[in-house]
Amino acid sequence: MLLMPMINNKKEALGSMGNDIPLACLSEFSPLLYEYFKQLFAQVTNPPIDPFREKVVMSLQCPIGPEDNILQPSSKQVHRLWLKNPVISIADLEVIKLTKHRNWAAHVIDITFPASEGIPGFLNKLKSICEEANNAARTNQIIILSDRHAGPDRVPISILLALGATHHHLIETRSRMKVALVLETGEAREVHHICVLLGYGADAICPYLALELASSLRDQGILRVVTEISRGWKC
């Protein structure tokens, strides 16, 4: 329902009704953290702002990497990696991991922990992520938070929680402006997820699970079948 319209039509799925899902704080189903940042509102016909129809005042392009004080301009402000879109592909992420741009280096932080450690392991891991990011900021220009190692025996911390904790910890240690925060996550799969992550300090996001699913559907020919069926319905 969510990925097919984005893959086939290059736009978010639209519905005729508003969002009537109960508030996350009242739910008994343990919703994702992103659900706590949704606002209930009536769906109207006003088109959303986008970088195509409003390109004069809006752009998705974003520079990432160390930056200087904007009140004291210098040449370092323009020597950054320039992304046309904050959502990057798996191949782009691999390039960033191996980048040597201006002698930069990237450091990958695993945000998973052993399931056997329970809540204490969760809290200890969250603390260690912040400490590792702070140490990495001294010698690296790009920090990548990754949940790639999630599995039956390893539980991933929510990428939103890990990002928020890391972002604010680096601000407190005066290291946030020295690095770019890039996310490698299978948790983000909706437009709303991406927006919340960007709002909490992410510079770039690779939603690898959604991208791998899209690639798998393409290889299986499912996208072509769905497209043909949708055309038949329109006729």
Automatic annotation (TrEMBL):
Gene Ontology biological-process annotations: ammonia assimilation cycle; glutamate biosynthetic process
GO molecular function ontology, one term from the record: 3 iron, 4 sulfur cluster binding
Keywords, sorted A to Z: 3Fe-4S, Amino-acid biosynthesis, Flavoprotein, FMN, Glutamate biosynthesis, Glutamine amidotransferase, Iron, Iron-sulfur, Metal-binding, Oxidoreductase
Domain Glutamate synthase central-N, residue spans: 1-223
Repeat is among the record's keywords: no
Needed cofactors: FMN; [3Fe-4S] cluster
SUPFAM superfamilies named in the record: FMN-linked oxidoreductases (SSF51395)
Pathway annotation: Amino-acid biosynthesis
Family membership: Belongs to the glutamate synthase family.
Protein name listed in UniProt: Glutamate synthase central-N domain-containing protein
